[in-house]
Structures are given as structure tokens and as C-alpha cells.
Amino acid sequence: MAGINRDGSTNFTFTQLLRKARILKASGYTEGERHELFNRGLVGVAARPKQLSREEAIALAEGKFWETLSARERAEFQLSQDRLSMPFDVFHQALEDALGRPVYTHELGLNRDGLIAELLGQREAPSLDEIIALIPAEKRLLVQVSPAGD
Of 11, 28, 84, 146, which has the fewest beta carbons less than 10 angstroms from its beta carbon? Predict the structure, then answer.
């Protein structure tokens, strides 16, 4: 598995290195900062990128930068930013594709850290009960539908 070895060296494939370089460039770091983070293997959500200004997020969205990124790259980049820099439906679909499961919109607001940990392979996907439990009890309304004829 590609990543950072105990001695600090990396064993990333060429494709992974290109992906990391694209994410770092879009994350707002200076060239020197990108070089340091790239060499340390800290990219995407693990790198805690600088937050985009409103103007930068709009410029990225208007430039459709996400079109060159894979679903995982889109999910990593957008989860690391507070401001949306691609259409929500593009981000939402990318996150579902990257995680391999449906992602409910309330998870984005109530479990962002959990989604990041799941994307990084640091935790398992939550159960439906855990996803529902994210919604405050006073705002939860569940309807059980029985089959016709019951």
C-alpha cells in the first residue's frame, strides 16, 4: 500500500504523485510549502490545506478545476475546505463514489470529521442507525411504512 514509511520515505506510484501535486496546487500553498508537504506525503484532507477565500473558491468553481480530478480527489479536496468550490451535486456524488456508499446530506454538516476519517481509512462506515443518531432527537421524525394490505 502506498504511503509514508516509518523512516519518512514514501512509496507512492507515479499516478499518486501526480494526483497529490494537483491537489496541493489547488490548495493555495506557496511553491515552497507545496514542495515540503509533497515530500512529507501530506496532501488532501490530512494536510489541513489553507482555507480558500470566497473569491478563490468562486474562481476555482468558475474554472471547473474539478473536471481533471478523480472522485476521490474531488472528495479529499472539498472535505478539506470550508467553502464549496465545485457544484454541490458534483462534490456529493464524488464523496459517495469515493466512500462506496450513500452519503446523507446531514452527515456533511454533523459528521465532517467522521467522513474525513472514513475517507482516509481510519474508521469504518457508520451504520444507518449511527447516521440517523446524528440528527438531534428533537428534530428526528421516522415514518415506518408497511406493505400494502397490512
Answer: 146
The pTM (predicted TM-score) of the whole model is 0.66
Kindly give the residue spans of alpha helices, DSSP state H, lying in 63-145: 71-79, 88-99, 105-110, 112-119, 128-133
Gyration radius (Cα) of the chain, Å: 18
Distance CA 139, CA 136 (A): 5
d(CA 100, CA 17): 23
Q: Is residue 7 part of a domain?
A: no
Domain containing 29 equals 14-136
Domain count, the chain: 1
Do the domain assignments include residue 59?
yes
Per-residue pLDDT reduced to its tens digit, 62-81: 888 888 888 998 998 898 88
